[in-house]
Amino acid sequence: MLEERKNNYIMSIYKAGIYYGISICDISTGEFYSAEIKDNYNFPMLLDEIARYSPSELVINSMLADCIEEISKIKERFENVYITKFNDKFFINESNNLDLRFTIVDNNGNKIEDLKNRQLSVISINALIEYIEETQKTNLDHINKITIYNISKYMALDLNSRKNLEITEKMRDKSKKGTLLWVLDKTSTSMGGRLLRRWISDPLIDVLEINRRLDAVKELKENIILRGDIIDNLKKVYDIERLAGKMAYGNANARDMVTLKSSLKKLPEVKSILSNCKCKLLKKLYSNLDELQDIYELIEKAIVDDPPMTIKEGGIIKLGYDDEIDKLKTAQIEGKNWLVQLEADEKEKTGIKNLKVGFNKVFGYYLEVTKSYLNQVPDRFIRKQTLTNAERYITEELKNLENQILGSEEKVMNLEYNAFINIRDEISKNITRLQTTSEVISILDVIASFAKVAEDMNYCKPEVNSMGAIDIKGGRHPVIEKILGEGSFVENDTYLNKEENRLAIITGPNMAGKSTYMRQVALITLMAQCGSFVPATEAKIGVVDKIFTRVGASDDLSMGQSTFMVEMMEVATILKEATSNSLVILDEIGRGTSTYDGLSIAWAVAEYIADKEKCGAKTLFATHYHELTELENKLDGIKNYSIAVKEKGEDIIFLRKIITGGTDESYGIHVARLAGVPKDVTQKANEILRSLERKNILTGKQQEKQSKRQVEGQFDLYNYKLAEIAHEIDKINLNELTPIDALNTLVKIKEKIK
Ligand code: ADP
Ligand code: MG
Predict the structure, then answer these.
(1) What's the pLDDT tens digit per position in 35-77?
(2) What pLDDT does 104 receive?
(3) CA atoms within 13 A on the CB side of 300
(4) How far is the C-alpha of 713 from the C-alpha of 436, rounded, in Å?
(5) Pocket test for ligand 1, best of 484, 516, 549, 655 (most atoms within 8 A of CB)
(6) What's the CA dihedral at 9, 108, 203, 637 to 10 degrees?
(7) What is the pTM (predicted TM-score) of this model?
């Protein structure tokens, strides 16, 4: 009942102080990963890893279970995850067994020889295996490879960015439509669908590996015939990965085998198509693709083309596969012929014209004679059953035939069942080969899907390097572009680097397109690092190590109470974790509090990020605080941009073009008019605005005074306290005061002053 295009993961977490060892397995496909988290900000990293897999169940040790703060954060973020506290005695540091049972490899598929300094991983692996074996109580032979990955192989994408960028699900309703996955997923198989989801959830940071993917996409994009052939064949390939899992798991039936067979049938053709490919990745797929024709032939020879669901009632094995089964089956068929013969013989002997042989489960075979012929029934007929208008009989001869036929039927069922189990075991023995092939098919599928989307949507191949600059010409937002339809989306350029163009302050009225623009830059970067082509005419992407996005509280619909607090916590995380290699998107932060607070926070945050010593991340910062545009002149690395609008009489037209320079017009009233707010209101608003502006000009000084009075006000309060204390001192009658009382009074007064 699993969703085909989504993995179903279980994850174990071993918490040891501030470190974690995690292991992740999908039992249905046999994938098994493990990693260690022993860096600076471990708990957020743990949350990010949970987000990467979104497992259905967590198996944890007691130290984590007892850590109420962490558990409640996990529960809060992953509402649907099922958490099991597992006995600590299963979290053991014992690697000999693992070495024997599994091939343990690193990110690049190289064998890991020494597990000594991978204790955290080893312990979490042991616990997860124990847990799976204990709960599943079956064979887990298809789990044979464990990848211990280095977390930094992938771009760090925290949970918020995954949500905000709507990579695999929409913020509002968690649906797939309208996400990046929705645009990019044109895979033909469910295996490919799962891998594509994983690739875009885990963008790479290794320039070489990214370019290997991009070259493969390029080859399939340019060679339309090649791509067409591949897609046509992949369409007929079913979920080999899960079928292999079912075989090893011992719950595959004969229909699964036929499905597997028809998938395997396509492999030689896929292989021969791949033999023409030129790029490195596709060549590697070619050499790794095992055609598995021995397994294909085994199934083809043994299993009938349309077997039943059950495996215990025969009808599975083809004639010619097994002599014993053949013999018994022939006997069965002959037996049926004998019955026909017996019916004819008895008709002739007795002269009963409508005598017929029948069968039911309770009485077995019988001869049926209708009431009108009863007087012709001979003595050798033994009565078995009486019906309203017929009698049923058995004869010695029929009894013998019955034994032969039914006996052989049961034998055949048993033999067929045994033969089936043997075949299934034989296939299970080849599980690694099946998995290797399914991996090849998945990768090929994703590459072909990227190529097709690149062609259909007119994407370009990004130049991915490690130069640290992001230079996009004619960039588009992949999702909005697709929703708006061809030609409606306005392209924009972007230039960010580690020097003079680190931080872009983007101003512009509501609805101008600021959020869209910033997300588009993040998505293009992310897509490039997944190995996909990107919606732009030209793109040079310096690999980023992390992407952060933070949307201001009042813009963030998914948040509930205390949104400002949440917003600030996330800003705090970004400031702590962003590096000069990161990409940061800040969308109207500081909006959740009063104007002056908000402006001050936004200002200070911008200053901090722009400071190379402290952070220096490439940043896009949209804000409605026009004051921030002053930063351009004050600090290095900051540039002002705005999104152009054109005034036309009373109206404004959104041009959607990003231009250099800030704007201090907010056009709020124009937008209100566009939105259909009644004319009376917008006119009145205009009048108020004008009068406010006038006052501001006239009373430029007045404002200053006002703020001064605020300060004075504060002093007033202080003075009031002092007056109170003076009054108390004044009340004291020194003649009645003992030295102790005097001391006590003095303590009280000091307390008050504090
Ligand atoms: P802002 O953040 O400035 O308020 P948004 O980014 O939310 O504005 O954009 C508002 C709407 O404008 C989007 O929903 C989208 O439909 C449209 N839009 C934004 N950018 C573009 C563009 N480059 N081309 C066409 N339509 C756009
Ligand atoms: Mg916005």
Answers:
(1) 999 865 578 889 989 998 999 999 999 999 999 989 999 998 8
(2) 93
(3) 11
(4) 76
(5) 516
(6) 140
(7) 0.75
- C-beta 516 within 6 A of ligand 1: yes
Point out the ligand nearest to the CA of residue 512: 1
Distance CA 98, CA 306 (A): 41
Whether residue 489 has its Cβ less than 6 Å from ligand 1: yes
Give the angle subtended at the CA of 704 by the CAs of 698 and 705, to the nearest 5°.
95
CA of 512 to the centre of ligand 2 (A): 8
Q: Model confidence over 597-609: pLDDT tens digits?
A: 888 889 999 999 9
Mutate which of 480, 555, 654 for ligand 1 pocket (most atoms within 8 A of beta carbon): 480
- Whether 624 is in the pocket of ligand 1, judged by its Cβ within 6 Å, is no
Low-confidence winner among 270-284, 331-345, 400-414, 697-711 (lowest mean pLDDT): 697-711
Coil/strand/helix, residue 35: strand
Kindly give the distance from the C-alpha atom of residue 480 to the centroid of ligand 1, in angstroms, as a whole number. Answer: 8
Q: Is 490 in the pocket of ligand 1 (CB under 6 A)?
A: yes
* List of domains in the chain: 1-153 (3.30.420.110), 203-292+430-456 (1.10.1420.10), 323-426 (1.10.1420.10), 458-677 (3.40.50.300), 682-754 (no CATH)
Tens digits of residue pLDDT in 692-718: 777 655 444 444 444 443 443 344 455
Residue appearing with tokens 């404004």: 652
For residue 681 the two structure tokens come to: 């209101």
- Is residue 442 within 8 Å of 194, Cβ to Cβ? yes
Ligand 1 in contact with 475 (CB < 6 A)?
A: no
SS3 714: helix
Q: Is the dihedral of CA 439, 440, 443, 445 positive or negative?
A: negative
DSSP string of 85-102, one letter each residue: E--GGG-----HHHHHH-
